[in-house]
Write a structure and sequence with these properties.
five-stranded mixed beta sheet; alpha+beta; Ribosomal Protein S5, domain 2; 19 strands; disordered C terminus; 501 residues; 21% strand; Four Helix Bundle (Hemerythrin (Met), subunit A); Heat Shock Protein 90
């Protein structure tokens, strides 16, 4: 009655001698019955359309509705156009395909068949080069009956975010009931495209009630298990395809580690990261641990915006000098991943930009940092509240200085992400670490010991802070840095001092 002011149903039983009956209702809660003119067995349903629903008399409108919602029902649906006298103005033509791709035996389907159906799932048109990375054809009868064909697109669709994001088409007994059902897979698997059809879902309930239907929950559990199994098999047997999938959709799988505790172990094994030791190749946590040299007890990582910047960070120097690989994390969600996954295979995950970096003895090892104690004290006096602490570094082997965060702090990268999301955060002073092996730092230490009050010490300390900020892209006073560099160059060239630091 959404479009009709009255519905008439003419029906006649197949039992010999039974009269035809007309059932009629206007949707007001009542109905009438009387004899019908129908001469043959079967039923005829007549909709007397409201004045504001005459558009449904249009042949193309009806054809579109049939193709969208009932194209795959088992029985043929024919569309005829009648004249005013009730005779056929145009011969009846079958509109629906009366077949469902997902019910066919996968062994009888070719790659071309799947490609054609993939194009249908993706909206009817894909480029010849746009082939799915993976496909999954499922047919289950217990504990819940459903059939499904899913695809992982070859590249990230533009509609993965927002209200217009497409998910999976849901059919009940081959009738489309939801064109975009987001309850069939968890959100982190939203890059899958395809159809799901079940005989166990009712046709006569609202979409809101259907979303909470027990059968739908059972389908979701089974489909999630199958989808994760497909990803795991691909990661194991086809590294090239999985690496390509990860580059396109890995960020979504990382979300799952934060939201899906039930599948945490499976998702952990699916994680891939860029790494300083792999030359552009992705690495799993298992591969990282298996390749750890003797003496390494932790999994080291660094987070930030750009891969190139991270790979050149001074924070990596001590790890590099020992042959320790460092995971490079550039997705915003990585900050939550490392909070949820604090260890793997009993190896803790350690951020190389936070806290005191405890490393086995090596090139960057220190006893207590006392060899530059005078410089650290003087530097703190020069920098004041801008810096929380100045200390000797255990992580630097080549650079003179770097900035680090407290072990318990949220970290500079997390601050950046939260500020981009609109959060207001106070500017907390950070820790300045100095490399006691660096010639410039040694010279500054000598100056602090032998020439207390020398104005050059202030300049040099400011430059050490400038260099640390420049290395990580957080230089707060570029113009001041340029002036200080010029003063240092003047000193080297023997030009008379002038200006202030």
């Amino acid at each position: 009655f959404m479009v009709a002011e009255r519905i008439d149903v003419h029906t006649r039983s197949a039992t010999p001698g039974q009269a035809a009956v007309l059932w009629s209702s206007t949707g007001d809660g009542g109905f009438t019955t009387c004899s019908s003119y129908r001469q043959t067995r079967g039923s005829r349903i007549e909709l007397h359309l409201r004045d504001d629903a005459k558009e449904y008399l249009d042949r193309w409108k009806l054809q579109g509705i049939i193709k969208k919602y009932s194209d795959h029902v088992l029985y043929p649906i024919e569309l005829a156009e009648l004249g005013d006298d009730g005779t056929e103005k145009q011969a009846a033509q079958q509109v629906n395909s009366a077949s469902a791709f997902w019910t066919r035996n996968p062994k009888e389907l070719s790659d071309d068949d799947y490609q054609e159906f993939y194009a249908h799932v993706m909206g009817g048109f894909v480029l010849p080069s746009d082939k799915p990375l993976l496909r999954l054809h499922v047919s289950l009868d217990a504990p819940i009956q459903f059939k499904s064909v899913l695809f992982v697109p070859g590249q990230r669709p533009v509609d993965l975010f927002g209200d217009d994001a497409k998910h999976l088409q849901l059919y009940a007994r081959r009738v489309l009931i939801m064109d975009n059902c987001d309850k069939l897979l968890p959100s982190y698997l939203r890059f899958f495209r395809g159809v799901v059809d079940s005989e166990d879902l009712p046709l006569n309930v609202s979409r809101e009630l259907l979303q909470e239907h027990q059968a739908l929950s059972a389908i979701r559990r089974q489909l999630t298990r199958k989808a994760l199994g497909l990803l795991a098999d691909t990661a194991k047997d086809d590294r090239s395809s999985y690496d390509k999938l990860w580059r396109e959709f890995g960020v979504f799988l990382k979300e799952g580690l934060h939201t899906d505790n039930a599948h945490r172990d499976q998702l952990t094994e699916l994680l891939r990261f860029d790494c300083t030791a792999e030359g552009g190749k992705l690495i799993s946590l298992r591969e990282y641990v298996d390749a750890m040299p003797e003496g390494q007890e932790s999994i080291y990582y660094i987070t930030g915006e750009a891969l190139e910047d991270l790979s050149q960070s001074p924070h990596l120097e001590a790890c590099r000098s020992r042959g320790y690989a460092v995971l490079l994390m550039t997705d915003a969600v990585d900050e939550w991943v490392v909070q949820d996954l604090d260890k793997y295979a009993d190896k803790p995950l350690v951020n190389v930009t936070k806290g005191e970096l405890e490393l086995p003895a090596g090139e960057a090892s220190l006893d207590d940092g006392g060899e530059i104690a005078a410089l650290c004290t003087s530097a703190k006096q020069v920098l004041g509240e801008r810096i929380k602490e100045v200390r000797a570094s255990r992580r630097l082997t080549e650079s003179s200085s770097c900035l680090v965060d407290d072990e318990s702090g949220i970290g500079r990268n997390m601050e950046r992400i939260l500020r981009m999301a609109g959060r207001e955060l106070p500017n907390k002073p950070r820790i300045l670490e100095l490399n006691p092996k660096h010639p410039f730092v040694r010279a500054a230490q000598t100056l602090a010991l032998e020439h207390e009050g020398d104005p050059r010490l202030t300049l040099w300390v400011e430059l050490l802070l400038d260099q640390a900020g420049l290395a990580e892209g957080t230089l707060s006073d570029p113009a001041g840095t340029v002036r200080r560099i010029q003063r240092l160059l003047d000193e080297v060239a023997g030009v008379a001092e002038g200006g202030s630091a």
